Every structure is written in C-alpha cells, then in structure tokens.
Amino acid sequence: MTELSDENILEMLSNDKNFDKGFEILIKNYHEKLYWHIRRIVHFHEDADDAIQNTFIKVFKNIKGFKGESKLYTWLYRIASNEAITLLNKKKKKNLTSWDQEVDSLGKQLIADSYFDEDRAQLVLVKAIAQLPDKQKIVFNMRYYDEMSYADISEALETSVGALKASFHHALKKVESYIKEHIDYV
Predict the structure, then answer these.
(1) What is the DSSP string of 74-90?
(2) Would you place residue 89 in the very low, low, confident or very high pLDDT band (cuts 50, 70, 90)?
(3) CATH architecture for residues 1-96
(4) pLDDT: is 20 or 1 the higher one?
(5) pLDDT tens digits, 40-66
(6) Which of 52, 136, 147, 180 supports an S-S bond with 132, CB 3.0-4.6 Å?
(7) Largest Cα span, the chain
(8) CATH (residue range 97-186)
(9) C-alpha dihedral sign at 77, 78, 80, 85
C-alpha cells in the first residue's frame, strides 16, 4: 500500500467508520520520523519509546479537534517535541548533577546503548547538541536532521521564522565550537 497524503488520512480520521484504519496509517506514516526526532532530543531508546507512545496517545485523544490551522505533520512534531521536553524536564528534576557530569554520563550511556553506533565523530556531535538549551536543540535537530523549512519549524513550534533563524545560528555556532574543542584532527 502506498503512503497516503495527510489530507487522505485526515479524511479517514473524520469518519468514525474509517477512524481506526486512518489512525493506523497515521502511525505507520509518522512513527519512525517522530521516533528519531524525539530520540535525538532525549538520546536513549527507552526514553524515546516512552515519549513516542505518549505522543500518539495525545494525538489519538486530540485528533478529532485538529482544525487544520497548521499542517498535520507540523502539529505532530509540536506534540512530539513537547513530549520530549516534558520527559527531559522530569529527568532534570530527578538528576541534580553538574552539566559536565551529565554530558560525560551521556557519553558513557550512549556507548553502552546497543542502538548506538560507536563512531567518535557521531558521539562528539551528540554531546555538542546535548549541551544546547532545549529550544536550540529542537530547532537544530529539526533543521539539520529532519531538513524542515523554517516556515514548517515555525508552525510546529509556534515561533517566528526570525527567532528560529537566530536560534539555529546560535546553536550552530555552539555546536561548531564544541566540536572544535573536542575532536582530534589528523
């Protein structure tokens, strides 16, 4: 079966008879994209798994109220981003260690994670992105990994394009600086 357009999915979801099938297709179309968006924010498979589950629960509960004032996929990214931030905030409240200890711990945990490829450059990039403030991290990930336009990120995060461009620029400079400090050049 070919991937249905968002308009077709929304049409299915608006009809009680086709709702279950429409929701199944929505999950099939967006699960992997949203999982990796969340995973790049929270870093660990188990956390991303929890956040993606919470994302789809919220989507299920609220899809009937979706008015189409934004694109379906930007609405989904907004929910996924919020779930990832909520999870991070809960973890931050429980963890009272310093930032340096947190980044060091992240590196050790990632290397131990069976889903993580032990590429040194990848580890440095992940650590560089991890040190960004949450908003910059999300904007960086949406732009760099998801290749979203500023207009779509603006819609998903309900922020102006100008503010997003500034956020991305600052994030990029911080990532570049971190990488220059932590990568051994040949």
Answers:
(1) HHHHHHHHHHHHHHHHH
(2) confident
(3) Orthogonal Bundle (1.10)
(4) 20
(5) 998 888 999 999 999 999 999 999 999
(6) 136
(7) 62
(8) 1.10.10.10
(9) positive
